[in-house]
């Protein structure tokens, strides 16, 4: 999602955390530890390619993706609105 909206991953996560009340449970969720472990085991990458991915990523529904464009401040996000 960060690539799509042309923002850093940390900026995306920070925007989500600061606006968490805008994201109903059915718009976004974070993978459980078990789901994250399974996802990582299915992803073929070396440890150097993990880029600090130590925490389960967020997953967004179609509505959640649209909601992201309203909380991000990149030019790309503004275009999507």
List strands and helices in order, with pairings.
Blueprint lengths: L8 H10 L9 E3 L2 H10 L15 E3 L1 H10 L3 H6 L1
Antiparallel strand pairs: 1-2
Keywords:
two-stranded antiparallel sheet; 2 strands; 81 residues; 7% strand; mainly alpha; globular
Helical stretch tally: 4
The percentage helix is: 40-55%
Assign an overall shape.
globular
- The overall strand count is 2
User: Going across the major beta sheet, what is the strand order?
Assistant: 1-2
- Residue-averaged pLDDT: 81
Secondary-structure element series: HEHEHH
- Residue fraction in strands: 5-15%
**Cα distance spanning the termini:** 15 Å
Describe this structure in words.
With 81 residues, the chain is mainly alpha-helical. Helices cover 44% and strands 7% of the residues. The two termini are 15 Å apart. The relative contact order is 0.25. The model has no long low-confidence stretch (mean pLDDT 81).
Describe this structure in a few short sentences.
The protein has 81 residues and is mainly alpha-helical.
């Amino acid at each position: 999602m960060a690539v799509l909206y042309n923002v850093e991953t940390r900026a995306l996560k920070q925007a989500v955390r600061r606006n968490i009340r805008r994201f109903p449970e059915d718009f976004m969720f974070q993978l459980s530890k078990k789901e994250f472990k399974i996802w990582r085991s299915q992803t073929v990458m070396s440890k150097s390619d993990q880029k600090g991915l130590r925490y389960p990523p967020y997953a967004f529904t179609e509505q959640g993706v649209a909601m992201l464009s309203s909380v991000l401040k990149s030019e790309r996000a503004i275009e999507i609105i």
